[in-house]
Write a structure and sequence with these properties.
This protein has one domain: Pnp Oxidase, Chain A. 12% of the residues lie in helices and 41% in strands. The strands form 3 sheets. The protein has a 7-stranded antiparallel beta sheet. It has a 3-stranded antiparallel beta sheet with strand order 1-11-12, with no helix packed on it. Strands 7-8 form a two-stranded antiparallel ribbon. A hairpin with a 2-residue loop joins strand 9 and strand 10. The mean pLDDT is 93. Bound molecules: flavin mononucleotide.
Length: 172
């Protein structure tokens, strides 16, 4: 059977409807860490994270173009993706804040690639940045996973409808 291309009517999507619909896609929460050009650790909370390829092992995350120190995540070659556990709500809030001393109150060690591997996470992935692509007001960044740290055996921190949630306890 031949598939026919249908002309879709041009519709403007209401931005509030769009955000609300996207917020209904439940996700985990990560903190992406990197290094500034002078070697200072940086980190940002990111829920727009996905697996991309198994062989080679690739992951994908998206950062707003206005993210502070965007180059530290996109251009300096290396990041660590830290997947948060359900008791790391405060860590998520810390790395989503504008604070300049984000690493003063969290435990971490330095990964082989120099980026911060945070204590208490479910897993951390050390990545080499291989590509990035601007999509609207965000940058999609692709990393090749070079080292995997298995972390604590715990439940994940989740994000759903603009709130933190836990497995089996939606919207709490
Ligand atoms: C749960 C949660 C998930 C977030 N996910 C993203 C994301 O996927 N991409 C993004 O650019 N910002 C995301 N943010 C917002 C950033 O963490 C925040 O805007 C950023 O840290 C602002 O600080 P900075 O620009 O000084 O780094 C998220 C925030 C929270 C609390």
């Amino acid at each position: 059977m031949r598939h026919q291309a249908h002309e879709l009517p041009h519709m403007t999507v209401d931005s509030q409807d769009f955000r609300d619909a996207l917020s209904r896609f439940a996700s985990g929460v990560t903190v992406i860490t990197g290094l500034d050009s002078d070697g200072t650790p940086v980190g940002v909370t990111v829920s727009a994270f996905a697996s991309l390829s198994l062989d080679p092992p690739l992951v994908l995350f998206c950062l707003g173009l206005r993210t502070a120190k965007l180059d530290a995540y996109a251009s300096h070659g290396a990041v660590a993706v830290n997947i948060l556990a359900e008791d790391q709500h405060a860590v998520s809030e810390l790395f989503a804040s504008q604070r300049t001393d984000k690493f003063a109150t969290v435990g971490f060690c330095q990964g082989d690639n120099g980026c911060a591997v945070l204590d208490g996470c479910l897993a951390s992935l050390e990545c080499a940045i291989v590509n990035s692509h601007v999509g609207g007001d965000h940058l999609a960044i692709i990393g090749r996973v070079e080292r995997v740290h298995r972390g604590v055996a715990a439940a994940p921190l989740l994000r759903f409808r603009g709130r933190y949630a836990a497995l089996g306890n939606p919207g709490s």
